[in-house]
């Protein structure tokens, strides 16, 4: 039984990483209706920017805030310059655009900062949290930040005018335009916010997985899986999905014989798919009804 | 957010409708292309012939995805898994059971059809990004499954299997590469014609009806479940054939040749060639074979970025892929004829 609780705790700790990323995924999905394959790379690039700032002697929290502002601006710029011209293009063409963006960011980061693994500092320290060997203060801090982020987003979407406008633009663009919402800029704003959230995720994840251009590959996959499991329309679902995927993954690795590190991912994905077969819109997703 | 059900107005489907006749090339153009494919290998080096063989093979794999996505509107990131099953079926049969390479191809088609059909069953419940995730899971699982210990005797584990390249039959005076090229060409033409006919048939119309509107299709009496799984089966079978040919051409199969990267390449090939336009599959295959090499030669360190920029250029200029160029060309010819 102790093994079980320990594994669940460890799962929650890794789940926090996935939850962070899933939150960013859901944000952008709300705004643009696609899964952004380049999201992880964008987060990685932001993390590198903050690392570079710290190398130049900027203190952690200052670097954090600067990176956040930079990511927000960069997200908007990417939407305006690269993806606005593709608004009328077919969906699959947009997906190809994300893959292109992925290749560009990954390769440039590799050229600027090379592919060696770098240490990344944590503001929370890495002592055991409340005496538990499995969760460090950093991981506890990460869970705390994720929950704060979720609350912040909830209040933003529910109680601010601009949050309401973004929701309107995402769910019924035509009607939103009729009441005077600039839907095109709402999409850009969505990109900006998603990139900023992604950069927070990146900066929290980097102390755990270490900083290098390919650090986000695995994390993004789990982030997608978590977002899909929780339901792509629900930020709350994304966070719950993230923790569930973390726990799933750990338990599968411990209890199913013959599952090494390599088979963890396929098994986690298979579990998620079996959940989706029962609940096709995810655990907390809105069921979308199509008009014929 | 609220859990209220939401109604989405029509006109926002994932894959746009392509008129049936626009899915193929005219007879004249086809004959010119065919002649070029027959004659060119006589004048080029073996390496170029090998690249042309790979182009046909990837073209087949992209074509298979095109039938699934462009035809029936189902999205797949798992094509690399079907490709791997085809490749391994051929390799194992050739190396362990000493079966003739040409005979292994129909066998792997049947195996892959079964595999794809069965996979299509649970996938029926899913669509859009959810289906993408499911197929993606298949693609990430496949290399790991091929490495499993109890299969190692057959698959060779991480090491993979070496496949012997066949000689030209009947004492034909041509190199192994040239023979393999013509062999691939024959298979490709046969499959291309079958695919064109499939999409023109009753089943093809059913695929397209499902793509355009599933609910409407089912109320018109189309058996949605049957045709969706059938599309998966057919697509997997063709991808499997491509995989078999690929294994014979490369003379080697290993789990790590069939990762998600392959599936993403095939997807890019489909977009560049034009979703739902079968001849475009081969244009897309050319893109995924040659453009990465080109990017590498422009800049070694930044090859990924160069590739990304080139891809962006293509999708800006022709968001509908090579099909758009073909349509523009057709209109120009039409104008020319009028004058």
TrEMBL record, chain A:
Question: So where does this one cross the membrane?
Answer: 12-32, 60-83, 95-115, 135-157, 185-209, 265-285
Q: Which CDD domains match?
A: TM_PBP1_LivH_like
| A Gene Ontology cellular-component term | plasma membrane
Q: Which domain of life is it from?
A: Bacteria
Q: Which GO terms describe its biological process?
A: amino acid transport
As for family, the record states: Belongs to the binding-protein-dependent transport system permease family. LivHM subfamily.
Protein name in UniProt: Amino acid/amide ABC transporter membrane protein 1, HAAT family
Automatic annotation (TrEMBL), chain B:
Pfam families noted in UniProt = BPD_transp_2 (PF02653)
- Gene Ontology terms: cellular component: plasma membrane
Q: Where in the cell is it found?
A: Cell membrane
Q: Does the keyword Membrane apply?
A: yes
Enumerate the GO terms in the molecular function aspect: branched-chain amino acid transmembrane transporter activity
Per its UniProt entry, which superkingdom is the organism in?
A: Bacteria
How does this protein sit in the membrane? Answer: Multi-pass membrane protein
User: Which sequence ranges are marked TM in the entry?
Assistant: 22-43, 49-68, 99-119, 126-146, 179-199, 230-254, 260-290, 302-322
Sorted alphabetically, the keyword list is: Cell membrane, Membrane, Transmembrane, Transmembrane helix
Spell out the protein name for this chain.
Amino acid/amide ABC transporter membrane protein 2, HAAT family
